[in-house]
Structure prediction request, 514 residues.
Amino acid sequence: MDEAQKFQYLFWAYNIIWILFAGYLLMLGVRLRRVHRQIARLRGSMGKEERT
Amino acid sequence: MSTSSWSPVASAIQPALTIVTAGLAIATLYGAFFHAAREKVMGDIQRIFYFHAPAGIVCFLAFTVTFAASIGYLATRKKIWDIVAHASTEIGLLFTSVVLLTGPLWARPVWGVYWTWEARLTTTLILWLIYMGYLLVRRYTDDPDQQARFAAVVGIVGFIDVPIVYWSIKFWRGLHPLVLKASGGEGLDDTMKPVFMGGIMTYLALYACLMAIRVPLGRAEDDLKSFRHLEEESHG
Amino acid sequence: MRSPKALAIFRKDLRIEWRNLDTLPAMFFFSLLVLVIFNFGFDFVNADFRDLGPGVLWVTFSFSGVLSFGHSFALERDGDCIQGLMLAPIDPGSIYLGKMLANLTSMLIVEGVVLPLCAVLFNHDISSAAGPLAVVMLVHTVGFAAVGTLFGAMTARTRRGDVLLPILLFSLSVPVMISAVKCTGAVLAGGPLFAGLTRAWVTMAAVFDAIIVTAGFLTFEYVIEE
Prediction:
């Protein structure tokens, strides 16, 4: 295996770390957005109940 | 990402943690490629070591936190312990995945094989399976209290199991020649050691940073779940 | 007065099994079927029992064990008997020990039939190693039963217990699996049980048994609590 090929493995090893962490952060972001949406919806429905 | 409404402490330290993590990561990346000497036998591919081995060390730390928090939950029944255990398991699994994916990419050019059933590698794989089981138990249990209790038992028994797994695999493989002496970090020279330490610090900071996001998120999800539960009871 | 209560649970479970024969026949036929499938995979006639036998046997035993562990608590759940057990003046640890002994007994009965049968299918004479083999079976089956009883009780109360139990059981019982295969191989090759490497393996398995039984004994109340 020549040096250039070895570098490809190194390149992908580093990239895979970024991909994994980015994927996890993305997942956390989605979950956080869902929580915010639900809280907003609950706030809205509570406001309505108060007014009626 | 604002988590301020439910966890002021975490959201106060989280930006600082993010900056520290980014700084450490950049410093370690620089060190790994420009400061650390080129390993004589393995060549440049050894540079993945600085982000491979530290992930393994910090994943053990994460599962230790899971273990302690699981005991904390069973002893006090405070929901926060369960949330911490769950968060730490998720992040620990993320780090374990890093180890399991970077390992083969390092092994292939150096030993010519992607995988070898060596003690440390095999234990990491079993570790990954055990804690995936932890997440599956959570997923398939409906009652929230039951979910927390079951998860805590898996978090405790699984953690106790890991050293025996390691020992048994080591003993099982010990009869064969060790393929993998070089990955133990014995051959680190003076330029490599600080970079290795930097790797550990980076992952520690990243762990803290992710926990500071994930724990408040877990709390919010839990609050919402119990709120909806209450609502269903009052309406139904 | 801990053990008599565990023994009462043990006797109760054995009596139920003896009357209904719900699990043992299923375990036995399932084991037989696994052996038949292994035969197609490995061709028993041309293979050496000492090479393949240990692996084939322990995969078969652990697979059939899953049936026993899963049923052990499905029984209590379906009849709403858990509450009864919880109300009875028995500590959860004793329930665990009793259940574990019942599972252990079921597995040992199946192993006692399947092991000689497997040897016959391989055309291999195991009578010379019968004594050491029995010890190996006992020490390692305790480990499987200890893990299986704890997580069988847990997964019986989850939505996909049938999937969860094998996942937890097989990943946590890796040490006994390795040791069981090693010891069985050594004993089948005519080696002594309490010497050298085999002794170290048996000791390791016994330590594993002790640790998991203790962990199960202590955590079981959190598993069966309502």
Notes: The interface with chain B takes residues 1, 3, 5-7, 9-10, 12-14, 16-17, 20-21, 24, 28-29, 31-32, 35, 38-39, 42 of chain A (CB under 8 Å). The two ends of chain A are 75 Å apart (CA to CA).
